[in-house]
């Protein structure tokens, strides 16, 4: 029974641009690609869990998306992550009151 098994948790994050730097970008295509990427990572995570059932704790694998939720790519990534069933972890780059004013 020792050592205890750990849950399978995989973290993925993104760094991107704000909308004023994305004026020529195809927002729909970006959303689709992010969704495809996150869905693929989630499937691979599940496949890894199923291929090694004795390696991890008997809990559902977790794909955790990390984003500071800035306008633009960061929020798009967060939206797509929630759509595919990821957990969302928001990293605040400064104190919450200042973050709320800026973003």
Question: What's this, in brief?
Answer:
The protein is α/β, with parallel strands linked by helices and 103 residues long. It has helices spanning 27-51, 73-83, 96-102; strands at 9-13, 62-67, 87-90. It is 42% helix and 15% strand.
In what range is the share of β-strand residues? 5-15%
How would you characterize the largest beta sheet?
3 strands, parallel
Mean pLDDT: 89
Radius of gyration: 16 Å
Instruction: Give helix and strand order, one letter per element, not per position.
Output: EHEHEH
Instruction: Assign the structural class, choosing from mainly alpha, mainly beta, alpha/beta, alpha+beta, or little secondary structure.
Output: alpha/beta
Ends apart, CA distance between termini:
48 Å
Number of strands: 3
The number of distinct helices, counting runs of at least 4 residues, comes to 3
User: Helical amount among residues, as a percent range?
Assistant: 40-55%
Morphology call: flat
Number of domains: 1
List unreliable stretches of 5+ residues. Answer: none
Strand order of the largest sheet: 1-2-3
Write up this protein.
With 103 residues, this protein is α/β, with parallel strands linked by helices. The chain has one domain (9-19, 26-102). The chain has 3 helices and 3 strands. It has helices at residues 27-51, 73-83, 96-102, and strands at 9-13, 62-67, 87-90. Strands 1-2-3 form a 3-stranded parallel β-sheet. The protein is flat and about 55 Å long. The model has no long low-confidence stretch (mean pLDDT 89).
């Amino acid at each position: 029974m020792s050592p205890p098994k750990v849950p399978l948790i995989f973290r993925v994050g993104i760094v991107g641009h704000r909308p004023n730097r994305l004026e020529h970008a195809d927002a729909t295509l970006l959303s689709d690609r992010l969704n495809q990427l996150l869905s693929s990572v989630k499937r691979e995570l599940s496949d890894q869990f199923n291929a090694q059932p004795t390696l991890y704790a008997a809990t559902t694998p977790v794909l955790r998306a990390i984003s500071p939720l800035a306008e633009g790519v960061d929020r798009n990534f967060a939206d797509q992550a929630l759509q595919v069933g990821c957990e969302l972890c928001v990293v605040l780059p400064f104190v919450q009151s200042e973050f709320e004013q800026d973003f």
